[in-house]
Amino acid sequence: MNSEQAYRFEIEFLPRIVERVARVVDHGVRIEILSYESAHVPTRLRVSAEPAPGQGDGHRHRYAHPLNVFLTWDDEEIERLLGAGGEARFLRYLDAIGAKLDAWQGARDVDLATRSQAEPSVLFGGLDFES
């Protein structure tokens, strides 16, 4: 992916991802776009927060570290998104973000409700835009 494609992704798509993630994770969570630097440092979305007060609700596990998650998407997936049919595919993806976040956090010892995680930093990388 080249820097022009990364810029288009950051301008046209990432703000809508930020808005949808913000709706899913609730208040008190910071979501920031970290711009494309190179092929080795792609565009990232950072989701971070201090742990929520309390000890969880008995169904949740409070982990040792505050929320500090990075999301990156596969270059080929971004290129497909920028092509024909990409907008419709993206809209389906936005509708599925809540379920995707649930699956990702269970797979990586991250708990959005308590805003905590098992490792100091977690990368959900190589993501696609499937719904």
Structure notes:
With 131 residues, the chain is α+β, with helices and mostly antiparallel strands. The protein has one domain. The protein is 39% helix and 23% strand. The chain has 4 helices and 6 strands. It has helices spanning 3-12, 14-25, 75-81, 86-107, and strands spanning 30-34, 44-49, 65-73, 110-111, 116-117, 122-127. Strands 1, 2, 3, 4, 5 and 6 form a 6-stranded mixed beta sheet that branches. The longest helix is centred in the C-terminal third of the chain and has 22 residues, at 86-107. It is globular and about 45 Å long. The model has no long low-confidence stretch (mean pLDDT 90). It holds the Pfam family DUF5594. It comes from Caballeronia hypogeia.
Q: Overall pLDDT, averaged?
A: 90
- Beta-strand segment tally: 6
Q: N-to-C SSE series?
A: HHEEEHHEEE
Write down the domain tally: 1
Number of helices: 4
The helix content, as a percent range, equals 25-40%
Instruction: Categorize the overall geometry.
Output: globular
InterPro entries: DUF5594 (IPR040953)
Domain DUF5594: 1-130
Organism: Caballeronia hypogeia
Protein name: DUF5594 domain-containing protein
SSE order and pairing:
Blueprint: H1 3-12, H2 14-25, E1 30-34, E2 44-49, E3 65-73, H3 75-81, H4 86-107, E4 110-111, E5 116-117, E6 122-127
Parallel strand pairs: 3-6
Antiparallel strand pairs: 1-2, 2-3, 3-5, 4-5
Helix pairs in contact: 2-4
